[in-house]
Amino acid sequence: MASKIQGRLANYSVIPEGSLLFDPTSEKATAPHPLRGLVDHGPFGAKLSPAIVSPPIRLAYVTVEGYAKTLRDHLNRLEQSFRSTAKSGYFPEYTGFQKVYGVPLSIPQSRRETVSLIAEVDARTALNHAEPERAFLPLLERAVTALTVRRTEFDVIVFYFPQFLSPIFKIYGEGYEFDLHHATKAITATLGIPSQVILDRSIEYSDTCSVMWSLSLALYAKAGGIPWKLNNAAPEGTAFVGLSYVLRRQEGKQSVLTCCSQLFDGQGHSLQFLLFSADEFRLVGRNPFLTKSGMRRLLSKTLELYARQLGSLPRHVVVQKTTQYTRDEREGAAEALGNLPGYDLLQVQEGTSWLAAKGTRGEATPFPVDRGTVLPLSKFSFLLWTQGDVWGATELNKSFYQEAKGVPHPLLITQHAGDSDMLDSAAQLLALTRMNWNTGRLYNALPVTVRSASALGDIAKYMGRHSTAPYQYRLFM
Fold first, then answer.
1. Contact between 409 and 444 (Cβ < 8 Å)
2. Partners of 157 in the beta sheet?
3. Does residue 169 form part of some domain?
4. In whole angstroms, what is the distance from residue 243 CA to residue 289 CA?
């Protein structure tokens, strides 16, 4: 007979949704809704002096011959106005690129401009190859190389891959995978060129307003613009670091571990990131971990990067990754960060089996638990719901659930080192889910630290070589 368990979980807390800052000179230029903030205040970067984006933002594009008009027509919509047809009411009216961002957009209108086309017959021939992705990549590389001779004439390359290329969008095999998006980003990032990939699903999507918001925001950020920053999310001198590891198995050679260290300031603004190769590492199951010296070198280099960018060392560093920290990693981090006033090592895990329901008087409500709900599990771990009900996000006194269906799972956060307050750590993690400039969404499930480090690692796998010098994050967005 099972014994009855006495006791209950600790009381939960709900962290209020923070605001975003749209003007470095005014504390009043804030809004909780990123797109409404852009409409009301314009982008953060527009008020900086000197301007970080020189007008106009100039586009180049690469596509298959015969499909240029489809892409050009889609890009020309960026200069038009659209109202959202979505029932959620989340998207405000899109009024055109220059009105929103305060800078004009230059879109090529003829082949004589910054346009590079792949012959359709060559693209279709590549698809009939035994390894179609390997046959297509040289065509793509030649198209990009043709544009590099005109590098001073554009700021961002836009790629449009028509639907007939879908057989090579993603390929999975035994011990092998290929992603055309990631491979494209690797080509342009190696050359130091920001890029944007467009597929038919966005061109044909019924709510053009939402597509234009996401596309315009991504292009502005990739051209070097700063749409917004976090408002009072962390004490001055805080640095956030996202780590990810990618194991590259080289045929006939020892495997090499590529480490991605993504650095953010206390306002959630990405500074730069490092790609660091480690010959010595430890495998636990399928997960790689750094040695003590490897972690020390990686975090020491990250501190040097912060100091070069901001002129001094941070006062507090928060390191985040999805796997646990081994003893070697904790000791290596202590050697690199131990002389700072403070640091934390946080593990951020998705895919937990925890679920919760929100109710009153024993009755479940139609909406999920509030986003920002924090449930302590122990002294060093807690659950954080980064998805859920956001009261008043679109209308006053009205619930908004971005995912619209399903029951959200929380993140499991474990503190492996440090003594920061649990609710302070949770509030910072929640705020960092607002810092994705690649989409107009209200939030993402993961903080940008973890999300970007993982995405950078996925792209780094396709880079035949990488520099030891820091990269700009916008090259990999």
1. no
2. 60, 195
3. yes
4. 11
Q: Are residues 218 and 235 in the same domain?
A: no
In sign, the C-alpha dihedral spanning 205, 206, 209, 210 is negative
Given a cut of 70, is residue 257 above it in pLDDT? Answer: yes
Residue range of the domain that includes 299: 231-475
Name residue, tokens 């919760």: 356
Q: Are 339 and 296 in contact (CB under 8 A)?
A: no
User: Band of the pLDDT at 24, cuts 50, 70, 90?
Assistant: very high
One domain for residues 428 and 465: yes
User: What pLDDT score does 157 carry?
Assistant: 98
465 and 361 belong to one structural domain: yes
Of the chain, the percentage scoring pLDDT greater than 70 comes to: 96
Backbone dihedral angles phi then psi of residue 314, each to the nearest 5 degrees: -70, 160
Which of the listed residues 222, 245, 264 is the one where a domain comes to its end?
222
Going through 314-443 in order, the beta strands assigned E by DSSP cover: 316-321, 342-349, 359-360, 363-364, 373-378, 381-384, 411-417
Which one-letter amino acid corresponds to residue 344?
D
pLDDT for residue 252 is more than 60: no
pTM higher than 0.90 for the full model? yes
Asked if residue 63 lies in contact with residue 71, where contact means CB atoms within 8 angstroms, the answer is: yes
Tallying the residues shown for the chain, one arrives at 477
- Which residues on adjacent β-strands are paired with residue 413? 348, 382
Separation in Å, CA 423 to CA 12, 15, 104, 372: 11, 8, 42, 10
Instruction: Tally DSSP H helices, then E strands, for the chain.
Output: 12, 23
Count of domains observed in the chain: 2
The first and second tokens of residue 73, run together, are: 């027509």
Q: In this structure, are 182 and 249 located in the same domain?
A: no
